[in-house]
Amino acid sequence: MSSLKTKLDQAAFAALQFSYSPYSQKKIGASLQLTNGKCYSGCNIENASYGGTVCAERVAIWKAFSENPATEKITEVVVASVEKDPWPPCGFCRQVLAEFCTPETIVRLINSDGKEVTYQFKNLFPAAFKPEHLKK
Ligand code: ZN
After folding, report:
1. 46 a catalytic residue
2. Which pLDDT value is given to residue 128?
3. What is the CATH number of the domain that holds 32?
């Protein structure tokens, strides 16, 4: 894996190793950093009852916000895969990310071949559902 440029890249690939994905066979890892500097990671965890499946991005978010106040924001997210093309967050995860990201949050998609695609969150999900009470 030649793309392990940053601590977040390394954390995302480390999490990917624990992916439980017997149904999709897609191993995904995600990592993120908060405004307070703390980093969290997660992998996709699937379930025989498909609705119980959770993506890597949401696992990392649950870990982060079960230990930090929601006043923290995500400054950067990395999604790592071993797929041919970098793996983008699904719509469900984009909506969950919208709760904790800013428009400027960096979202980097990387794969094991060193391919990388970088977005600002506002470009990845420009029309997020954001109830009035969440707007600032
Ligand atoms: Zn997802």
Report:
1. no
2. 87
3. 3.40.140.10
pLDDT in tens, 66-112: 999 999 999 999 999 999 999 999 999 999 999 999 999 999 999 99
Domain of 70 in residue numbering reads as 3-135
Q: Region 114-122: what's the mean pLDDT?
A: 97
Looking at the structure of the chain, the number of domains it has is 1
Residues 25 and 4: their CA atoms lie apart, in Å, by 23
Report the DSSP pairing between strands 116-120 and 101-111.
Answer: antiparallel
Ligand 1 centroid – CA 57 distance (Å): 6
State both tokens at 89. Answer: 């967050």
| Ligand 1 geometric centre to CA of 55 (Å) | 4
3-class secondary structure, 107? strand
**pTM score, two decimals?**
0.93
Residues with CB under 5 A from ligand 1 (ion): 55, 90, 93
